[in-house]
UniProtKB/TrEMBL annotation:
<dbReference type="InterPro" id="IPR000560">
    <property type="entry name" value="His_Pase_clade-2"/>
</dbReference>
<keyword id="KW-0472">Membrane</keyword>
<keyword id="KW-1003">Cell membrane</keyword>
<dbReference type="GO" id="GO:0000828">
    <property type="term" value="F:inositol hexakisphosphate kinase activity"/>
</dbReference>
<dbReference type="GO" id="GO:0005886">
    <property type="term" value="C:plasma membrane"/>
</dbReference>
<keyword id="KW-0547">Nucleotide-binding</keyword>
<keyword id="KW-0808">Transferase</keyword>
<keyword id="KW-0418">Kinase</keyword>
<dbReference type="InterPro" id="IPR037446">
    <property type="entry name" value="His_Pase_VIP1"/>
</dbReference>
<keyword id="KW-0963">Cytoplasm</keyword>
<keyword id="KW-0067">ATP-binding</keyword>
<comment type="similarity">
    <text>Belongs to the histidine acid phosphatase family. VIP1 subfamily.</text>
</comment>
<dbReference type="GO" id="GO:0005524">
    <property type="term" value="F:ATP binding"/>
</dbReference>
<keyword id="KW-0597">Phosphoprotein</keyword>
<dbReference type="Pfam" id="PF00328">
    <property type="entry name" value="His_Phos_2"/>
</dbReference>
<dbReference type="InterPro" id="IPR033379">
    <property type="entry name" value="Acid_Pase_AS"/>
</dbReference>
<comment type="function">
    <text>Bifunctional inositol kinase that acts in concert with the IP6K kinases IP6K1, IP6K2 and IP6K3 to synthesize the diphosphate group-containing inositol pyrophosphates diphosphoinositol pentakisphosphate, PP-InsP5, and bis-diphosphoinositol tetrakisphosphate, (PP)2-InsP4. PP-InsP5 and (PP)2-InsP4, also respectively called InsP7 and InsP8, regulate a variety of cellular processes, including apoptosis, vesicle trafficking, cytoskeletal dynamics, exocytosis, insulin signaling and neutrophil activation.</text>
</comment>
Length: 354
């Protein structure tokens, strides 16, 4: 986005601005974003800034251990997050402890159906300036909040890119989002973000962890991807705001869109009554570990021979539980995989010879 050109035009023509342009420079720097959030009393993850700037050597103290880093005296045990200070750089890394296998999850701007990949590399980056922050456990979801003025906020949840890196998309190829109801405290946070950054139309990211909500990123001018209700509300609010500014003589009142309350009233023989529409329950047996099953069809004679060896034809089914029985299944599987790999090598050689 040609921000410098937009600022120059604004100074030349003095138009009515929906979003403050000067604040866009702060939004492009994660250090400034976190500073403003902290000044406004908005909760954010514990963090430290590593500035690799020769002019500020006191802000470039990094001590890396196997399962932690110390940044300017602040210790961050793994897992922790490493973010470039430039908000335009989306290469965010999450480092895992050795007890969880080590390595790192590397997040990036979505490419096709991927938003992150796992890497065995466990060492932090040695060039560039970064923000190191505490990893927040969020049950695999991120909350995206979109404001249109300080009194309106729309929220959606998506699968966290840190989970497995695969983007969930619908039949139209759009990323799947789930509607979210914000708490009163989260609505207050949305108002604070909107006012602090002077952005009428503003998007930011919330992490819900340990019973609290933390702001981890502010994106500035952002729109919801797929919600007609949001666009209707946005049009009303922005139209109202612009008309009040450009035509004050009309004395247009403020009107904040709200969803009409849909009360389920149905007629009955005893008069009108409220209808119970549904009961939603999530139930899990408390003292059993969910089984990790994989079902498949097998046609190889070796599996049929194993089936016959252990008397499977007598009852029409067979359960193998003893270690030596499971070892037989594993040996057959490994043998077949080795044979398959050899066949693929032979085919490749034939193609090269031809």
């Amino acid at each position: 986005f040609p921000l410098d050109k937009a600022v120059a035009y604004s100074k030349l023509r003095n138009p009515f601005l929906i979003n403050d342009l000067a604040m866009q420079y702060y939004i492009q720097d994660r250090r400034e974003v976190y500073r403003i959030l902290q000044e406004e009393g908005i909760d954010l993850p514990r963090y430290a800034v590593l500035n690799r700037d020769p002019a500020r050597p006191e802000e470039c103290n990094l001590i890396e251990g196997e399962d932690q880093v110390e940044v300017n005296g602040a210790v961050f045990p793994k897992p922790f997050v490493e973010k470039p200070v430039s908000a335009e750089d989306h290469n965010v890394y999450i480092y895992y402890p050795s007890s969880a296998g080590g390595g790192s999850q590397r997040l990036f701007r979505k490419i096709g159906s991927r938003s992150s990949v796992y890497s065995p590399e466990s060492s932090v980056r040695k060039t560039g300036s970064y923000i190191y922050e505490e990893f927040m456990p969020t049950d695999g979801t991120d909350v995206k909040v979109y404001t249109v003025g300080p009194d309106y906020a729309h929220a959606e949840a998506r699968k966290s890119p840190a989970l497995d890196g695969k983007v969930e998309r619908d039949s139209e190829g759009k990323e799947i989002r789930y509607p979210v109801m914000l708490t009163a405290m989260e609505k207050l946070v949305a108002r604070k973000v909107c006012v602090a950054f002077k952005q009428t139309v503003c998007g930011f990211d919330l992490l819900r962890a340990n019973g609290h909500s933390f702001v981890c990123d502010v994106n500035g001018f952002s729109f919801v991807k797929n919600s007609m209700k949001y666009y209707d509300d946005c049009a009303k609010i922005l139209g109202n705001t612009i008309m009040r500014e450009l035509a004050p003589q009309f004395q247009i009142p403020w009107s904040i869109p709200t969803e009409a309350e849909d009360i389920p009233i149905v007629p009955t023989t005893s008069g009108t009554m409220m209808e119970l529409r549904c009961v939603i329950a999530i139930i899990r047996h408390g003292d059993r570990t969910p089984k990790q099953k994989m079902k498949m069809e097998v046609k190889h004679p070796r599996f049929f021979a194993l089936f016959e060896k252990h008397g499977g034809y007598k009852t029409g089914k067979l359960k193998l539980k003893r270690p030596e029985q499971l070892q037989e299944v594993l040996d057959i599987t490994r043998l077949l995989l080795a044979e398959l790999e050899k066949e693929q090598v032979v085919r490749s050689r034939r193609r090269l010879e031809n």
